[in-house]
Amino acid sequence: MSDTDLKQLPESQEPIVLENPQPSPNAVIEVLPPVLREIPHTRHHVKDEQLGLQIRDMAKLGLGKQSTALAARVTPYILEKYYLDEFLEGQADMQRGLAAKAVSEAMDGNTAILLHLLKTKLGWSEHQTLEISGEIRNVVSSKPLTKAEFIQRYLLQDGKEGDGE
User: Fold this and answer.
1) Which of 13, 29, 65, 95 is the most buried (most CB within 10 A)?
2) Which H or E element spans position 157?
């Protein structure tokens, strides 16, 4: 930053004196919400190798893009533009490590992980067949019943009006 970057106030000869520095107890203080401003994207960002290694390590730990950008103190735009390769490399390292650990656990006899790997990676599935037997008495119809047809079909049993007995 140079001296010309900061706006200089004109120097006044008289010192500023506050007449009543203590607010009165009945004074109403208005609190305004913060003014949201857009964070401008840096025009001339220079890629930093140390920052790239840190981003790779954070992605290796499983952080997402937004969290990694926040932790690295860069915008998500800068992360995607300059450090996307490092981020993806870190994610690939994490996935490779998890896959190796899962395979070694499965080979050591962990049945749950073995079944998960068989189902997700090799397409194995447990097919279950559901067999329904019996007689179908009611047929679903799209034609609505009249009140008399409904009473005849569902409420009358053997010519008598059924009362649930």
Assistant:
1) 65
2) strand 156-157
**Where does residue 69 rank: exposed (0-12), middle (13-18), buried (19+ CB within 10 A)?**
buried
pTM for the whole thing? 0.48
Residue carrying structure tokens 């970057």: 5
What is the rounded CA–CA span in Å between residue 71 and residue 63?
A: 10
Q: Are 41 and 74 in contact (CB under 8 A)?
A: no
Mean predicted confidence (pLDDT) in 119-135:
79
pLDDT in tens, 4-59: 555 555 666 666 665 655 666 677 767 667 666 455 555 678 888 999 999 999 99
In Å, what is the CA distance from 80 to each residue of 9, 83, 86, 89, 92?
40, 6, 10, 13, 16
Please list, in sequence order, all residues whose beta carbon lies within 8 angstroms of the beta carbon of residue 53, skipping any fewer than 6 positions away.
86
Do the beta carbons of residue 83 and residue 55 sit within 8 Å?
yes
